[in-house]
Amino acid sequence: MEGIEQRGATRLMTQYTKNMIIGFIIPVFLVIGYKTYKHITTKQLYECIYYTMSKTPSLWIDVNVATAEEFASLPSVSKSMARKIISYRDLIGGFHSISQLKEVDLWNPYDLSFATKVLYIDSNFQPPKVNIYYRNLVKHPYFTPRMAWITVKLKLQGRLSQWEKIVVDSLKLCNKDLANKLKPYMPTTTLSRKAKWRDKAQ
After folding, report:
1. Which residues of 48-66 are buried (b: 16+ CB within 10 A; e: fewer)?
2. What gap in Å lies between CA 86 and CA 68, rounded to an integer?
């Protein structure tokens, strides 16, 4: 009988302990945690997370190969913003500078400033050169319709190497900053139409 009573008392104590944990201890910890969290600003939380990530290179993200899921894994990047980054990257042909991320539509500079701590561009990355066709160029964010038309004309004349001198200095269709952004995407030299036909004939 004593053994049965002892086992019964043990079960009651175990149940009482569980009830204490569920009914009192856990709620107390939750309240303490909530009170503590209320005093932590979003900025402080981001700073803590990104500081830890910045010290761990394996957590850094290459902006030119990352998927939308990888971008969205960052605390300051939503899923919709991650998709916008991918879309803009595809549109321009890849990022050659982290500062280009500022051009992504509706990305809050505050959130971007944290994300750039763990985003990088591979030193061997070379953006693909744009195809010098009017329809392609007018879709590129850096080209206006007139810039696209002049660029195609220079290509056909075999004067693409003079692009900056003509478009920026003479016609002033864009400023130096935009021209510098475009340089990595521009083919260095292109044969004129006449030169191409001459090479084929030979």
Report:
1. ebbeebeeeeeeebebeeb
2. 7
Residue 17 resides in a domain: yes
| Tokens read off for 151 | 């660029």
- Asked, for residue 126, whether it belongs to a domain, the answer is no
- Which single residue is written with the structure tokens 């009482």? 16
pLDDT at position 109 = 83
Q: Say which residue the tokens 């913003």 belong to.
A: 81
The rounded distance, in Å, linking the Cα atoms of 151 and 93 is: 18
Amino acid at 143: F
Domain count, the chain: 3
Determine the residue type at 67. Answer: T
Query: How much of the chain exceeds pLDDT 70, in percent?
Result: 72
DSSP β-bridge partners for residue 62: 120
**179, two tokens:** 């021209």
State how far the Cα of 53 lies from the Cα of 68, in Å rounded to an integer: 18
75, pLDDT greater than 90: no
